[in-house]
Amino acid sequence: MTETFTSPAFTPPTRFAVPGRIAVSEQTAGAWQTATLTEIRRETPRAATFRFAVPGWAGHLPGQHLMLRLTAEDGYVAQRHYSLASAPDDHGHIELTLDHVDDGEVSGWFHTVARTGDRVEVRGPLSGFFAWPGDRPALLIGAGSGVVPLMSMVRHHRARGLAVPLRLLVSARAPEDLIYADEYGAETTPLFTRSAPEGVPVGRLAAAHVAPLLAEPPPGGWEAYVCGSNAFAEHASRLLVQAGQPVERIRIERFG
Ligand SMILES: Cc1cc2nc3c(=O)[nH]c(=O)nc-3n(C[C@H](O)[C@H](O)[C@H](O)COP(=O)(O)OP(=O)(O)OC[C@H]3O[C@@H](n4cnc5c(N)ncnc54)[C@H](O)[C@@H]3O)c2cc1C
Q1: Which of 47, 105, 165, 185 is deepest in the core (most CB within 10 A)?
Q2: 255 CA to middle of ligand 1, Å?
Q3: Closest Cα partner for 110 from 151, 65, 199, 50?
Q4: Distance from the CA of 149 to the center of ligand 1, in angstroms?
Q5: Is the Cβ atom of 104 under 6 angstroms away from ligand 1?
């Protein structure tokens, strides 16, 4: 069955910027599932977390992502990848955290039109390469919304009370841009590139942040997970290699 909402014809990018609803097309058996938006939480001026009920969600590993699909009345479809922010144990629910990209079709719809009760479609989880099962020491490095899959790992680590070492270096422009600011603990070092709280230096990720962690690796060594823009991923992985991290133990997720 195809359910049509009262959304006017959908012409990007404004089609998501009108106070209408998106059509939810027929589920593809075993693949696309309906996700009902149950909560919207603001994280920063440009990022918000969207919580969905997905009763048939099969579970995921921290670090995995999904494909999200919006379908308009006229059949126009927009699909985007989003990392799962929530820990795997959040049965029947998943959370995504989206940056509001300027003129972004899908992120713009979520930030300006979506409200609780709306339904979208999701397919996943996808990609095992960036997944962290919680079985090995993890060195996580993210920038901006690149922290989203890494936060799933941090939440999993906490929820399960894992003893395996986990460290997070997270870079943001300013304290007000730091996603999940209230959730970080001793495992996290936040870095600020434009302005920082008093007493905290301003600067980008540097060898001085990475080298000490690699100078004294935990037994078995670190598995490094890097997530962010192309430029950030290149920069961070270069620093890791220079500090002695084996290339084959650096996993990179690029948001484009
Ligand atoms: C594996 C994977 C996981 C991802 N996880 C997340 C996530 O957890 N949270 C999240 O916010 N995004 C995530 N993204 C990015 C996401 O898929 C979309 O690209 C993003 O939401 C923009 O889509 P849009 O429809 O709003 O913008 P579009 O309509 O596609 O683009 C609008 C304009 O913005 C530019 N643009 C597109 N994407 C970006 C970007 N990421 N940053 C800056 N400019 C951009 C385009 O060049 C274009 O000019 C992920 C991407 C991948 C590949």
Answers
A1: 47
A2: 6
A3: 50
A4: 14
A5: yes
Quickly state the pLDDT bin for 23 (edges 50, 70, 90). very low
107 lines ligand 1 (CB under 6 A): yes
Ligand 1 centroid vs 197 CA: distance in angstroms?
29
Residue nearest to ligand 1 atom 28, measured at CA = 104
138 alpha carbon – ligand 1 mean position (Å):
26
Does residue 31 have a pLDDT over 90?
A: no
Global pTM value: 0.90
The candidate with the shortest Cα–Cα distance to 160, out of 230, 62, 53, is 62
Percent of the chain topping pLDDT 70: 88
Whether residue 253 has its Cβ less than 6 Å from ligand 1: yes
Which position has the token pair 């009760």?
A: 117
Residues 6+ apart with CB under 8 A from 206: 239
Cβ of 82 closer than 6 Å to ligand 1, yes or no, is yes
Question: At 223, which helix (H) or strand (E)?
Answer: strand 223-228
Classify residue 203 as left (phi > 0), alpha (psi -120 to 50) or beta.
left
Residues 119, 27: contact at Cβ < 8 Å? no
* CA 56/CA 69 separation, integer angstroms: 17
Mean local confidence (pLDDT), 112-123 = 97
Distance 199 CA to ligand 1 centre (A): 33
Which pLDDT does position 193 carry in this prediction? 98
Question: Which tokens is 195 given?
Answer: 């302005």
Q: Is the Cα dihedral 149, 152, 153, 154 positive or negative?
A: positive
Domains and CATH numbers, the chain: 24-126 (2.40.30.10), 138-255 (3.40.50.80)
